[in-house]
Amino acid sequence: MEEGRRGSSSTPQSRKIMVIADPTRESAAALQYALSHAVLEQDELILVHVENSGGSWKNAFSSFLRLPSSISSSSSGSSPASNGTTTASNAAATALASEIGQGDGNFLEQMKRICEIAQPKVRVHTECIAMEGVKATAILLHGDKLGVDVIIIGQRRTISSSLLGTRRPGGSLRGSKGVDTAEYLIENSKCTCVGVTKKGQNGGYVLNTKTHKNFWLLA
To answer: Could you give the CA distance from residue 147 to residue 24 in angstroms, rounded to a whole number?
Structure first.
C-alpha cells in the first residue's frame, strides 16, 4: 500500500509527508516505512515531535533500522548505475542507526541524519510543537497549517484495538483520556493518515488507514 503518485508520470508533484517523531520503537518503524515505501525523491519530509513531559528516550531505537534493499525503489526511474550509491547509503544509514539513543544527542537530529543518508534527494526538516490539550488535536492542527498530504505515525497494536478499534461517534475527543492518537488521526485527518506497526525485524508492516485495516505489507 505505497502512497500514490499524484500528477502525471512525467512530472510527479511534490508532496508534504509528515512523520510523527517520538523516541519510541513505534515511531522508528513509521520512519523506516516512510523511507522505504512512501517517500519519493521530489517530496518534502517533515519530522514533527509533539513536546510533553514524557520519560527518557535513551536506547529507544536500539533495534531500529536494518534498511531493506528496496529503500529507494519507490523513486521511479532509478538506473543500475545508481545501485552502488544506494547500497553505500543503506550501509551508512544502518551504521548510523546503531548510534540512535546513545549519548545525549538530539533524537530528532539523529532521525534527520538517517533520512538524509537513506534518501539524499529528499528535503527533510524537523519541527517541535507544544502539546496544548490532546496530542492528536495538536497534530491535526499543525498538519492543516502546513498543508501536508500524508501523515505517518507509529502505532502500538493491542488485541482490543485490532478487533474493535477506538473510533468514537462523531470523532469526539471529549472524555478521551485513553484515546489512541494514531486511530484518532486515521479517522479524523483531512489528508491520508497511515498507522504503522512493524512485525519483527523482517516481518514487514501492518498498516491502517481509514479505508484499509490491518493491511500486511511485506518488507
So the answer is: 26
Mean pLDDT, range 57-76, rounded to an integer: 46
Stronger pLDDT, 13 or 97, i.e. the higher one: 13
Can you read off the three cell numbers belonging to residue 162? 485490532
Nearest-angstrom CA–CA distance, 186 and 210: 6
pLDDT tens by residue, 16-28: 999 999 988 999 9
Task: List Cα–Cα distances, 58 to 25, 70, 125, 126, 130, in angstroms.
Answer: 11, 29, 22, 19, 21
Cβ atoms of 47 and 127 closer than 8 Å: yes
**Nearest partner of 64 among 37, 38, 32, 34, judged by Cα:** 32
Distance of CA 125 to the CA centre of its chain: 14
Which residue type, as a one-letter code, is found at position 98? S
Residue 160: exposure state from Cβ atoms within 10 A (0-12, 13-18, ≥19) = exposed
CB 157 within 8 A of CB 168: no
pTM of the model as a whole: 0.73
Task: Give the DSSP letter of residue 163.
Answer: H
Q: What is the pLDDT of residue 52?
A: 74
User: What CA–CA distance (Å, rounded) separates 94 from 113?
Assistant: 11
Cα pseudo-dihedral 145, 147, 150, 153, rounded to 10: -10
